[in-house]
Amino acid sequence: MTKRLSPYRLGATLYMPATRSDIAKSILNNEIAGLRSIVICLEDAVSEQDVPAAMANLKQALTELCAAKAQGLGAEWPLVFIRPRHVGMGQYLMTTLDLSPIDGLVLPKFTFASLPAWWDIMKDSHLCMMPTLETEDVFDVIQMRELATALVEHPCHQRIIALRIGGNDLMNVISQRRPRNLTLYDSPMGYVIKMLVAVFGSRDFALTSPVCEHIDDHNVMERELALDMAHGLVGKTAIHPNQIAKIERALMITAADHQDALRILNSSQAVFKSQGAMCEPATHRRWAARVLEQAQVYGIAQENISEGVRRVTLTNQY
User: Residue 204 to residues 201, 223, 233, 272: CA-CA distances in angstroms?
Assistant: First the structure.
């Protein structure tokens, strides 16, 4: 059984339409600064009439990646995933193409009903799974609880790196669009994210945050990222390279949280005060372990206040 990758290796997951001609070049040369994971998208980012061209382009990209892998390259590449349009396309990819350079598939419109079909085509491969929760039943807490319980008990459990929350598709279900000057949490998606964290997070599944499609409004994105982190989400979908650095910075651990986490995991006290807050190792231990794991990947943010300017720098501790 192939073990799942750490969700903390995802960072900002950049979606790239399969129609782009520079996919292999971007991966081979690590051309996008700070990129940890990429999704080659054959679904929403590709119109129906462009699917044949996108498939041909994907085949060429895979040929180039396979050739590079054969030469021993790939250790420094970002994680690479493919997002097929549906199960049928996923089966075609699995049976027709060499997916050895690929780390996994993003499973669109994932539901309890589609689980057996996806597992049937992926169970004998090395690929990880990233199911996307983006259908009408996501709004139903009972159906989500049934799905979460099924995934815990299913052999695919150890192959699921994270569950992706499909914000735009879910807003479309209720005929809404993200408000231009508000975060997703100020919309009905606020309820959905909280519910999914409660249902899936309590069963030890990682969840990633939906994309912020307002590319040029960094204020909204930074507010949303702060809420993503407060809800324990492990990464965020990106649709433009200029979003990557902001997502990476949000994923860094504050020095205060890092210090608290170390004390919680190493203290013999039942309760103690740290930096003006109560720390209780019995109830904060899982949080502390998560903080240290996240810090190992993204580092620690140091906040230096000087002449009213806030600077965030990455320490060299890791």
Answer: 5, 26, 12, 27
pLDDT in tens, 125-179: 999 999 999 999 999 999 999 999 999 999 999 999 999 999 999 999 999 998 8
Please determine, for residue 315, whether its predicted confidence score (pLDDT) is greater than 50: no
Task: Establish how many alpha carbons lie within 13 A of residue 76's alpha carbon, considering only the half-sphere containing its beta carbon.
Answer: 10
Return the amino acid letter for 60.
Q
Residues 6+ away with beta carbon under 8 Å from 305: none
What confidence category does residue 279 fall into, taking pLDDT thresholds of 50, 70 and 90? Answer: confident
Residue 258 has a CB neighbour count (10 Å cut-off) of: 21
Comparing 66-75, 169-178, 273-282, 309-318, the range with the smallest average pLDDT is: 309-318
Report pLDDT for 269.
76
Task: Delimit the domains of the chain by residue range.
Answer: 7-251, 254-314
Instruction: Kindly state the tokens that stand for 239.
Output: 């649709």
Structural fold of domain 7-251: TIM Barrel (3.20.20)
User: Do residues 235 and 12 make contact, with C-beta atoms less than 8 angstroms apart?
Assistant: yes
The order of strands in the sheet holding 236-238 is: 207-208, 163-165, 128-133, 104-107, 79-83, 37-41, 12-17, 236-238
